[in-house]
Design goal:
Elements: E1 7-17, E2 26-40, E3 49-55, H1 68-79, E4 87-93, H2 103-119, H3 126-137, H4 143-148, E5 151-157, E6 173-179, E7 185-192, H5 198-203, H6 211-228, H7 239-246, H8 253-256, H9 261-272, E8 276-279, E9 286-291, H10 295-301, H11 303-307, E10 311-316, E11 324-327
Parallel strand pairs: 3-4
Antiparallel strand pairs: 1-2, 1-11, 2-4, 2-5, 5-6, 7-9, 7-10, 8-9
């Protein structure tokens, strides 16, 4: 199959997973983006990928086929029927690496969305992109908001277990629904100067949790829909009180705290002052959700951390669009 264009621009939002209680299921797209441009080579003998990176990861990310965007793009092109070709990737990265803001999900979604745009006319089929991205990532909580925008709740359905002729069994089925976020809900992300790998954060979790802790998180996660969009409530409640309660957690944050003690201390400080703070994804970023403008007050609570030079803060709106592509 020949590509429908020679150049594609992709814009993918940062994301925050879990939101406290919604462990491995809830994600939020943030108005903070990586932008990537793919230009296909006109030389049929050129099969190489050239990578140009500025911004986050410019000194650390690989510039060969091992780059996650490149490897994902190659796989997606094959899946969508495009012949292998050389190309230039120009990546303008703003999303920090290994901090809990969805950098790996962004890379996977960007590669798949670009391949889809080269192989199809018209709008993106977001369901196709989400399903393949979740398969590659292995879990849907970050890729869902990166694809759809807003707040997403995702889950996994096991395959039917019926062996195929080649002896394989069908992969898990990934599902996601998208919820509106109230226009007054703001997000503040505190970014530290240290990293934490998702695999190490995962290893810190127990294999069994107390029944009461599971029930605790179910009740809090059920509150998230109303806390993030108070307009759906039929009885008035203080939305920031709801955010405080809805983001409580007993399944993952306490177990991961020793791996990111500065983050755990900052969360405790912010929550003691009435701000709904939590680990962003697997950490070590700290996410604060608030209904209304409280940027100055949040900064004031965390002034010691910000003045130390080890932290910076981004005050962000919610991204409502998810991944965007333009054929150039």
């Amino acid at each position: 199959m020949d590509p429908v264009t020679r150049k594609v621009h992709v814009r993918v939002p940062a994301t925050s997973a879990n939101l406290g209680s919604g462990f491995d299921t809830v994600g939020l797209a943030l108005d903070y983006h990586d932008e990537l441009e793919f230009t296909l080579s006109s030389d049929p003998l050129n099969m190489a990928a050239q990578v140009i990176i500025d911004g986050e990861g410019a000194d650390t990310l690989p510039r060969d086929e091992s780059h996650l965007v490149i490897s994902t793009f190659r796989r997606a092109c094959s899946r969508f029927g495009l012949s292998k070709t050389g190309f230039i990737l120009e990546a303008h990265n703003r999303i920090p690496q290994a901090r809990g803001m969805g950098s790996s999900a962004e890379a996977i979604v960007a590669g798949i969305a670009a391949a889809y745009a080269f192989s199809h006319e018209g709008e993106l089929d977001r369901d196709v992109i989400f399903d393949y991205a979740a398969q590659l990532e292995g879990h849907p909580d970050n890729v869902a908001p990166a694809v759809y925008g807003g707040m997403t709740v995702s889950w996994t359905q096991p395959g039917d277990g019926v062996a195929q002729p080649d002896g394989t069994t069908p992969p898990a089925l990934f599902r996601s629904v998208n919820y509106l976020v109230g226009p007054d809900v703001t997000a503040s992300v505190f970014i530290p100067d240290f990293e934490l790998s998702t695999s190490k954060a995962r290893e810190a979790l127990p294999t069994v949790v107390p029944f009461a802790d599971a029930v605790f998180n179910v009740s809090r996660a059920a509150l998230l829909i109303g806390a993030m969009n108070p307009a759906v409530l039929t009885s008035p409640r203080d939305p920031n009180d709801l955010l405080m309660e809805a983001t409580e957690d007993k399944l993952h944050q306490a177990y991961r705290g020793p791996l990111m003690e500065p983050s755990a201390r900052l969360i405790t400080l912010l929550r003691a002052n009435g701000f709904a703070a939590m680990v962003s994804g697997a950490g070590p970023c700290v996410l604060v959700l608030h209904n209304g403008d409280a940027n100055s007050a949040i900064d004031a609570v965390a002034h010691e951390q910000l003045e130390s030079g080890h932290w910076k803060v981004l005050h962000l709106a919610t991204d409502t669009q998810g991944v965007q592509v333009a054929r150039l």
